[in-house]
Amino acid sequence: MMEETRARLVRAARDAFATKGYAAASMDDLTAAAGLTRGALYHNFGDKPGLLQAVIDQIDAEMAARLRAVGERADTAWQGLLDEYAAYIEMALEPEIQRILLRDGPAVLGDPARWPSQNACLEEVTRRIRALVADGAVRPVDPEAAARLLNGASLSAALWIAAADDPPAVLARAVAAFRRLAGGLLESRSGDRDAPASADP
Fold it and tell me: Per the database entry, where does the chain bind DNA (predicted)?
């Protein structure tokens, strides 16, 4: 019963936040849409920001699953990581992600780099870079430092796109620059295959 109540509130909030925006979505409208009371919202999420966090967690989990699928299609571990970052940046064009995660989320919940989901992402990327360094695919580098810089650059690119007057035009520039910057981690013996790709959006 509790899980169903939470799910109904998250569904209603996700729809309202995506269509109206966080500020314009009243708690009374949210609870009415879910067929519940304010008390249910307070009991399950504490307050409206808590409900926003739950919506973001749900969307973030869906994004992570999509990104894993992108990475699994790549020929190499490095290319998979790079493709996942590019796909993440491209998701900034999607209205729901753009509005909830990249606009309202930071305004209400603060720096996205400090969100719990980002910590899990940082740990995973650090692990993957450590493996790439051990395999000789990536130059010797501190794995955590590299992961933090790559995560920060991709997040900054996504936020830039979300705030731009012409998001598609900014996307092409952001992805091309990100690939070029990330390509600096590659060992030269990785071959010429990755070098041209790093310049393409």
Answer: 26-45
Amino acid sitting at position 61: A
The answer to whether residue 88 scores a pLDDT higher than 50 is yes
Give the confidence band of 187 by pLDDT, cuts at 50, 70, 90. Answer: confident
Quickly tell me which residue has 């909830």 as its tokens: 100
Contact 127, 110 (CB under 8 A): no
φ, ψ dihedrals at 136, nearest 5°: 85, 10
* Residue 186, φ and ψ in degrees, nearest 5: -70, 145
Whether pTM exceeds 0.85: yes
Q: Which two tokens stand for residue 9?
A: 């509130």
Place of tokens 């295959």: 193
Q: So what's the pLDDT on residue 169?
A: 93
What is the C-alpha separation between 122 and 113, in angstroms, rounded? 10
Angle at 120 between CA 114 and CA 121, to 5 degrees: 85
Rounded Cα distance between 10 and 163, Å, is 25
CB neighbour class for 92 (10 Å; exposed up to 12, middle 13-18, buried from 19): buried
58: confidence class by pLDDT, cuts 50, 70, 90? very high
